[in-house]
Amino acid sequence: MGEGSRLTPEVERAANGLRVRGHGLYLEPRGRPPLGFLAHARGARPVLPERTVATAATIAMLQAAQPRSLKRTAALPAAYGKPFALGSLRLTVHPAGHVLGSAQLRCEGEGIDLVYAGDIGGSGNRASLTAEKREQLECETLAIRAIYGHPRFVFPAREELLEKVRAFVDKSLRDGKTPVLVAAALGVTQDLVRFLGDRGHTLRLHPTALRACEVYAAQGVPLKAFGTEGEVVVIPPTARIERLKLGDHRVAILSGRATGDDIPLSDHAGFDELVGYAVASHAQRVFTVGGFAEDLAAALRDRGIAAFPIREHHQLRLPGF
Fold first, then answer.
1. Which CATH number fits domain 3-153+268-310: 3.40.50.300, 3.60.15.10, 3.10.20.30, 3.40.1190.20?
2. What is the pTM of this model?
3. What is the pLDDT of residues 245-265, one digit of tens each?
């Protein structure tokens, strides 16, 4: 590959979002392009591409949560670690560790050795209890989402945070109050069900989270003690607590952006893990996408990595182009 081709970015902004340069494959696109990769089901758009590459677990999640969207796309199930061809591209999906079925996508072809990591989860003592173990991939070019790409987002070990949740739940129940946990319906909620259910608590779930837990269970994830009744209430941030008519209750917000007495329990990798993943990928250059893209790119450049932020709604530019 010559010097000019090495400087040409393998990803570019196009009408429907991020696209593999020279190909019709979009990476988590907006709108309805002919072909797109969906990294996970969390926050999936109501309009999907004409053809959608995703894992079987992600497709099952879509079937449970938004069957109309799934009916309007041709789903192309992809299995972890099994390469397949789409046009002149060779594609392989690998576990991202974010939520069940979440995937990274390796794209290989003429002049392309690209990994789109998208939203990755934690690893080691920060790994999810209910998602597949994240794989560390190596590549020439890495594109990675930077939702927690700022240095202030460094999270404690997952077990430590879950123990804080249990302490909150136990104290609330001792005080005669209903514990209410505000958490993402897909990802954090399943870890709560796994952890608290194994410790004797029953969980009352919002319908969105309940459907997701049923898919997890059907996919073989051991979850128990959840349903429409329970001593611990778990709701997504969009739900309105007052409609539940709970009486005396106490609320804890579980989010990577938690402040004060709330708990920074997230299903995303924190800043230090994003940096660590990029360094371990040995990528010659890294594109940071969305979120705190500029901050993450700057941190990687401080470590001697050629890193470039991709801003939403702006065409990607490299210096000199």
1. 3.60.15.10
2. 0.92
3. 899 999 999 999 998 889 999
